[in-house]
């Protein structure tokens, strides 16, 4: 399934009309079924469906480790927009109370406040250790390099990206998608399936950081989040509770550090 399509469009230039061609990024629904039941439908860019589902399940608290999966498979062939997730009997019993989705903090619901969101995430994520340290100069260099990794964005100007790095700031995984949550799920899911997620130290995001992205990073035990845009207030509050380092680019190409500055050194 292609993720870029060439389409004909009309360009207006100095009051004159011109026909031209343009690359547009694909957007398709992905249905994730757990234990044979529909769980979520996500609008995403086609590609990396197994990794997407694996990262999504990790971030949602459906699994804690790869061995919690019995299987992750595409339904009805490689062109299917359905991923079927089967859990082990032990894991299914442990999260049975969550399967109606009422327990998931990533779902919008009436009457819930920011403090409740933070408390819910902290219950199944937990604070991160202070073992990882990176230099600010190397972090900024990684951000500069990150911009060049976004091949879909170069073609379409319409995607978000997430890149995961190890302690030496070598790229472990890079994913692009129309959805910023999807990009991170795919990047994390790829490492999760390869059993190399424990090497991850830094995630760089092309978008703002919302609390859901903090939740996903914390579940993956990634201690440092950098972004191109500023975070939300709830994201900062949650990151502080989880002892996660959060920073974004400033206008003069330096960093704003919102919390966890002990992991960033001059």
**In CATH terms, what is the fold-level topology of the domain at 134-265?**
Cytidine Deaminase, domain 2
Strand percentage lies at 25-35%
- State the oligomer: single chain
Strand order of the largest sheet: 9-8-10-11-12-13
Series of secondary-structure elements, N-terminal to C-terminal? EEEEHEEHHEHHEEHEHEHEEE
Mean pLDDT: 88
**Per CATH, which architecture of the domain at 134-265?**
3-Layer(aba) Sandwich
Which descriptor suits the 3D outline? globular
| Stretches with pLDDT under 50, minimum 5 residues | 102-111
**Any idea what the radius of gyration is?**
19 Å
Secondary-structure-derived class: alpha/beta
CATH superfamily of the domain at 134-265: Cytidine Deaminase, domain 2
Number of helices: 8
What is the helix fraction of residues, given as a range? Answer: 25-40%
The largest pleated sheet is described as: 6 strands, mixed
Distance between the amino and carboxyl termini? 45 Å
CATH class of the domain at 134-265 reads: Alpha Beta
- What's the count of strands? 14
